[in-house]
Amino acid sequence: MKKILSCCPVASIESMHLIPADFQFQPGKPVSALKTQVWWLQESESTVCMRDASQPIQFLNHYTDREGYLSSVDQAIRDCTHLCKGYELKTTSTESVFIKIDITLTPVFELFSQEVKFSWDKKTNWRQYEVVSNDWCQIQYPDHPISTHNVVKPVKNKKLVDNEVIWHSNQSIDQAMEGVKAFKEKWALNGLKESLTERKK
Fold first, then answer.
1. Residue 174, helix vs strand vs coil
2. What is the DSSP string of 68-117?
3. Where are the domains of the chain?
4. Taking the CA atoms of the chain, what radius of gyration do you get in angstroms?
């Protein structure tokens, strides 16, 4: 079973009926399933891209939330700023750099482990989870035979919930940062821990 560390929030908790991915079922026989709670971690992934009017888009550097939820954006902005200075890019340049960001949901099992901190960021709390995908499949109706009316499907590794381009070098700094601010406000998960705690009681 694969385990991961994440400092990102849990966006939702879903009750699922799961069977092992390598389960060998017998036609016409009912299939028992494990009813469990699956936690969906919400994360961001940012890619720094460069584009020239005569060339296809180049995908340069990729960032994840290693400094906290939505921190991939801040890391990518720092990278873009250095690139703009290095290539002397202006808002009117034919070459440009921009950030493509994905918001994803990853299904995991909660592990009762303590939060940990790392030397590079003493303020961010990380937790260990167990990945649901690869090892488990979801069955629609437990204790019934598998059929066209009772489908078994693999649990997705990730769900893509949003994909946008933000922070473009063809914009002014103020315009670009306004776009970043609006995006972060759109995907903020304020008060989520409290709401999840209430739902689990």
1. helix
2. BTTHHHHHHHHHHHHHHHHTT--TT-SSEEEEEEEEEEEEEEE-----EE
3. 3-189
4. 21
Q: In the chain, how many H helices and how many E strands?
A: 3, 12
Calculate the CA 50 to chain-centre distance. Answer: 23
Cβ neighbors of 75 (< 8 A, separation 6 or more) are 46, 63, 66, 67
Pair of tokens at residue 142: 């437990």
Q: What is the DSSP letter of 151?
A: -
Pairing of strands 152-154, 136-139: antiparallel
pLDDT tens digits in sequence order for the chain, 201 residues long: 788 999 999 999 999 999 998 888 888 889 899 999 999 999 999 999 999 877 888 999 999 998 899 999 999 999 999 999 999 999 999 999 999 999 999 999 998 777 877 766 677 888 999 999 888 999 999 999 988 889 899 998 999 999 999 999 999 999 999 999 999 999 998 645 444 444 444
Residue with tokens 């949901």: 105
Cα first-last separation, the chain: 28
pTM for this prediction: 0.84
